[in-house]
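Record 1 of the preview.
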Amino acid sequence: MSLHYTALVTLLSVLLQIWIVVLVGQARAKYGVKAPAIIGNEDFERTLRVQANTVESLLMFLPALWLCAIYLGDCWAAGGGLLWLLGRVLYVLGYRREAKQRELGFTVSAVAIVALVLAGGYGLLRALMA
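->
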Protein backbone atom coordinates (compact mmCIF):
# COMPACT_ATOMS: atom_id res chain seq x y z
CA MET A 1 0.00 0.00 0.00
CA SER A 2 1.44 3.35 -1.06
CA LEU A 3 0.76 6.31 1.19
CA HIS A 4 2.92 8.85 -0.59
CA TYR A 5 0.20 11.49 -0.98
CA THR A 6 -0.74 11.29 2.68
CA ALA A 7 2.92 11.59 3.61
CA LEU A 8 3.17 14.67 1.39
CA VAL A 9 0.14 16.25 3.08
CA THR A 10 1.71 15.47 6.46
CA LEU A 11 4.91 17.21 5.39
CA LEU A 12 2.90 20.21 4.15
CA SER A 13 1.09 20.41 7.50
CA VAL A 14 4.45 20.53 9.30
CA LEU A 15 5.63 23.26 6.93
CA LEU A 16 2.42 25.16 7.62
CA GLN A 17 3.13 25.00 11.34
CA ILE A 18 6.71 26.20 10.78
CA TRP A 19 5.38 29.15 8.75
CA ILE A 20 2.99 30.06 11.57
CA VAL A 21 5.79 29.87 14.15
CA VAL A 22 7.80 32.29 11.99
CA LEU A 23 4.78 34.62 11.82
CA VAL A 24 4.55 34.61 15.63
CA GLY A 25 8.26 35.44 15.92
CA GLN A 26 7.89 38.27 13.43
CA ALA A 27 4.84 39.60 15.28
CA ARG A 28 6.75 39.50 18.59
CA ALA A 29 9.52 41.60 17.05
CA LYS A 30 7.17 43.97 15.21
CA TYR A 31 4.96 44.70 18.23
CA GLY A 32 7.64 44.47 20.94
CA VAL A 33 6.05 41.57 22.82
CA LYS A 34 8.98 39.94 24.61
CA ALA A 35 8.81 36.23 25.48
CA PRO A 36 7.31 34.81 27.63
CA ALA A 37 4.60 37.49 27.40
CA ILE A 38 1.53 36.46 25.42
CA ILE A 39 -0.48 39.69 25.62
CA GLY A 40 0.20 43.28 24.75
CA ASN A 41 -0.86 43.96 21.19
CA GLU A 42 -4.07 42.77 19.55
CA ASP A 43 -2.39 41.98 16.23
CA PHE A 44 0.24 39.90 18.01
CA GLU A 45 -2.40 38.14 20.11
CA ARG A 46 -4.36 37.12 17.01
CA THR A 47 -1.21 35.71 15.43
CA LEU A 48 -0.45 33.76 18.60
CA ARG A 49 -4.03 32.42 18.66
CA VAL A 50 -3.56 31.23 15.08
CA GLN A 51 -0.58 29.19 16.24
CA ALA A 52 -2.34 27.74 19.29
CA ASN A 53 -5.52 26.93 17.38
CA THR A 54 -3.57 25.26 14.58
CA VAL A 55 -1.69 23.08 17.07
CA GLU A 56 -5.05 22.11 18.61
CA SER A 57 -6.42 21.31 15.16
CA LEU A 58 -3.33 19.27 14.23
CA LEU A 59 -3.99 16.98 17.20
CA MET A 60 -7.27 15.94 15.60
CA PHE A 61 -6.22 16.22 11.98
CA LEU A 62 -3.12 14.01 11.87
CA PRO A 63 -4.63 10.86 13.43
CA ALA A 64 -7.78 11.28 11.33
CA LEU A 65 -5.67 11.75 8.20
CA TRP A 66 -3.65 8.58 8.77
CA LEU A 67 -6.63 6.45 9.82
CA CYS A 68 -8.36 7.47 6.62
CA ALA A 69 -5.24 6.71 4.58
CA ILE A 70 -4.74 3.28 6.12
CA TYR A 71 -8.35 2.13 6.11
CA LEU A 72 -9.85 3.91 3.10
CA GLY A 73 -7.01 4.95 0.85
CA ASP A 74 -4.20 7.36 0.15
CA CYS A 75 -6.05 9.55 -2.33
CA TRP A 76 -9.12 9.96 -0.09
CA ALA A 77 -6.94 10.95 2.87
CA ALA A 78 -4.77 13.28 0.84
CA GLY A 79 -7.85 14.99 -0.60
CA GLY A 80 -9.24 15.59 2.89
CA GLY A 81 -5.81 16.70 4.01
CA LEU A 82 -5.52 19.24 1.23
CA LEU A 83 -8.94 20.60 2.20
CA TRP A 84 -7.71 20.95 5.81
CA LEU A 85 -4.57 22.75 4.62
CA LEU A 86 -6.64 25.15 2.52
CA GLY A 87 -8.86 25.84 5.51
CA ARG A 88 -5.88 26.49 7.76
CA VAL A 89 -4.28 28.90 5.27
CA LEU A 90 -7.59 30.77 4.99
CA TYR A 91 -7.75 30.76 8.79
CA VAL A 92 -4.26 32.23 9.15
CA LEU A 93 -4.83 34.94 6.58
CA GLY A 94 -8.29 35.86 7.84
CA TYR A 95 -7.65 35.78 11.59
CA ARG A 96 -4.52 37.89 11.30
CA ARG A 97 -6.57 40.59 9.56
CA GLU A 98 -9.55 40.53 11.90
CA ALA A 99 -10.96 37.97 14.35
CA LYS A 100 -14.29 37.72 12.49
CA GLN A 101 -12.51 36.74 9.28
CA ARG A 102 -11.33 33.41 10.74
CA GLU A 103 -14.73 31.74 10.36
CA LEU A 104 -14.43 30.50 6.76
CA GLY A 105 -11.02 28.94 7.34
CA PHE A 106 -12.15 27.40 10.61
CA THR A 107 -15.24 25.91 8.97
CA VAL A 108 -13.34 24.47 6.01
CA SER A 109 -10.71 22.84 8.23
CA ALA A 110 -13.33 21.54 10.68
CA VAL A 111 -15.35 19.98 7.85
CA ALA A 112 -12.16 18.33 6.58
CA ILE A 113 -11.44 16.81 10.00
CA VAL A 114 -14.99 15.52 10.38
CA ALA A 115 -14.86 14.02 6.88
CA LEU A 116 -11.52 12.32 7.62
CA VAL A 117 -12.81 10.94 10.93
CA LEU A 118 -15.98 9.59 9.32
CA ALA A 119 -14.09 8.14 6.34
CA GLY A 120 -11.41 6.58 8.52
CA GLY A 121 -14.01 5.23 10.94
CA TYR A 122 -16.00 3.73 8.07
CA GLY A 123 -12.90 2.08 6.65
CA LEU A 124 -11.90 0.73 10.06
CA LEU A 125 -15.36 -0.71 10.73
CA ARG A 126 -15.34 -2.30 7.30
CA ALA A 127 -11.96 -3.89 8.04
CA LEU A 128 -13.11 -5.12 11.45
CA MET A 129 -16.16 -6.82 9.90
CA ALA A 130 -14.16 -8.52 7.14
